[in-house]
Structure formats: structure tokens, C-alpha cells
Amino acid sequence: MPHPVVVAIDGPAGAGKSTIARRVAARLGFVYIDSGAMYRAVALWAVRENMDLEDAARLERVADTARIEFAPGGSTVFLDGEDVSEAIRTPGVSQAASIVSAIPGVRRALVEQQRRMGATESVVMEGRDIGSVVFPNADVKVFLDADPAARTQRRALELEAKGEPVSSEEVARELAERDRRDSTRAAAPLVEAPGAIRVDTTRLSIEEVEQVILELIAQRVSTAR
User: What CATH number has the domain spanning 34-121?
Assistant: First the structure.
């Protein structure tokens, strides 16, 4: 059985991480590990059980116990065998997830689950500390970046598509503040992981970025073999 391949994609907001990670996973038939969906799944369990969202110890036990899985090459999310892809996207669960995701014990438990996934099947995961913390030994590490103007434009278009239009100035301020928080936080800050390949997406289309990363994966995997 071939050794599972782990692809870690990091970078700041607006660099295109989520879009690219999903596309690459779909093209290769890998599992896309959606960390946000994992926190939402824990939150869904808590909401269904009418749990106190301030009970960190109990929520940590839920995260330890919950069996969260993803369909290879797709975006279906399973919680203990149940397809919860739609259930985790309700406003109530979204609000609960923002509280749940701030609990260190929940994060620890979910990172352990993510590592178990990467040990048994080929995965693609994106974030801000994937190559540095979650999968420091990933087969392929990519750091996606783009200049502030491009990232601002992308984020503004994304919000507009969701019916939340905001000014470019407001988006630029939000991204600058987010960059500052992400790069200076004490736990798992945004960094370019050792061994990561930096890809500047400023002047590249989604298809071009996808092709660059697919070629990088093919090169790294063939070299390793």
C-alpha cells in the first residue's frame, strides 16, 4: 500500500488557501481536512446535547470522543457516521463553533485527530500553522502569499458574493489587523514553515496556482519514492 501523502498549505487570509486546497484534494482524490468543519462538528454535538459552552472540560471530552471524517475528494463531513455537512452550517452552530474553537483542549484533541487522518490516508490541509505545528513532517509544504492589494480585492469579492459588501479600505484594515494577530500570537503563529515552498499568487489565476502545486506534489512524491 502506498505511503499516505500529506500536503500542508499555509498563508495569510486572502492568499487563496481554502480554494486551492479543495481543488487539489479533488483532483488527486485526497481527503481535504476542513479544520473549521471539525470545530463545527464538535459545536453541533454540544448544541444537540444542550451543553454549557463554558464547560471546557466537557467540550474537550466531546472532541476526544467524536469521530469526524471527510469523504475523499469531496466536501462531505461525517460525525460518528452521520452526514452533517448541512447541519454544521446553521447560524446557531456557527456561533457555538466560534466559542468551541477558542478552547485549547478542543484544539489539542482535533489536532490529534487530524494527525491520525494523515497517518492513514493522503490529505490536504490548509491554515496558518499546518506545516509548522499540525504536520511538521508533511511531504509537501506550501506557503501561499499575495500582495496586500490582491488579497484585499479577493476578500472584498468573496464578501460581496456572500451578500456582505464592504469597502476596500475596511477590508484592507481587517486583513492588516488579522495579519498582525496571526503573526504575533503566542500559540501557533503564522510562519513560513521550514522546508516550505513559497508561491506568490498575486498574478496567478486559480488554475495556474493549482497547476503549480500539483506539479510540486508530483515532484516531491516521485523524489521520495
Answer: 3.40.50.300
